[in-house]
Design a protein that fits this description.
Length: 267
């Protein structure tokens, strides 16, 4: 026999308690009848003649009449929470907030905006939160934020080429900016932004600084600078590099400032 309306309401409340969500998935395999029942209540609500007591019972159990609006509002709340926490709205595409695919949702809004199908009110709502529509600009801002995080932690911007920050190839990205600058095609505003963070454009100087940092790290850990020639630090041939500097010094071709730098470290 068909379940009564009250029985279906009980199944609905059991679902919302179990999944902590008033939205019943249409793909809910354990009770496919429930999804159909929810859709039917929404259709009845749009038509006149829905029993007011039943409406009251549904609403007291957080029944959602407009699933699309509910989902939108829910994601907006998560986006505000993310912004309050991170200080920006550049949500990485794979980021989940409260178990919800917030990054994926935001990406869909960008695609809709690009296609011209995003509702003007929704567009305004997102813009007021500080959404960046331009994906290239968004990606740039995202990398810049990761670079600031890296600098705050490490005290410098000499990101090793193979280094990943927050799952993103920050080292490769920085290498790309250096090459773009060398070709003279790096946007001046971006160039200034990177320079203000302390970026070293000269790749050779950058490599020197990177090795010095690794040497300081080695000394801090081992208490000396007697590095075996085959030793690698952070995937870099630090031992080989130190041997090269020793050879340069012997030949008299090592820059005096660099020589002093190494001597102060105890080389």
């Amino acid at each position: 026999s068909n379940p009564t309306w009250s029985e279906m309401l009980e199944r609905f409340t059991a679902y919302t308690k179990k999944y902590n969500s008033p939205l019943v998935s249409g793909k809910y395999k354990n009770d496919p009848q429930l999804g159909r029942w929810v859709s039917e209540q929404r259709r009845r609500y749009k038509r006149d003649g829905f029993n007011p007591l039943q409406i009251e019972l549904l609403e007291s159990n957080d029944f959602v009449w407009n699933a699309i609006k509910y989902e939108w509002d829910e994601n907006i709340i998560l986006l505000i929470r993310y912004r309050d926490k991170e200080g920006h709205c550049n949500v990485p595409r794979d980021h989940k907030e409260d178990g919800k695919n917030l990054g994926e949702w935001l990406n869909r809004q960008r695609q809709n905006k690009k296609k011209g199908t995003l509702d003007a009110i929704k567009e305004k709502q997102l813009e007021e939160l500080g959404i960046e529509w331009n994906l290239l600009k968004y990606e740039w801002d995202e990398k810049l934020i990761l670079l600031i995080e890296y600098k705050d932690r490490e005290g410098h911007c000499n990101v090793p080429y193979n280094h990943k920050e927050g799952g993103k190839n920050l080292g490769i990205w920085l290498g790309t900016q250096r090459r773009t600058k060398k070709k003279g095609t790096l946007d001046k505003v971006k160039e200034k932004q990177l320079e203000e963070l302390g970026i070293e454009w000269d790749a050779l100087k950058y490599e020197w600084d990177e090795n010095i940092i690794l040497l300081i790290k080695f000394k801090g850990r081992e208490g000396h600078c007697n590095i075996p020639s085959r030793h690698k630090e952070n995937g870099k041939n630090l031992g080989m590099w130190v041997s090269t500097q020793r050879k340069e010094k012997k030949k008299g071709t090592l820059d005096t400032v660099r020589e002093k730098q190494l001597e102060e470290l105890g080389i």
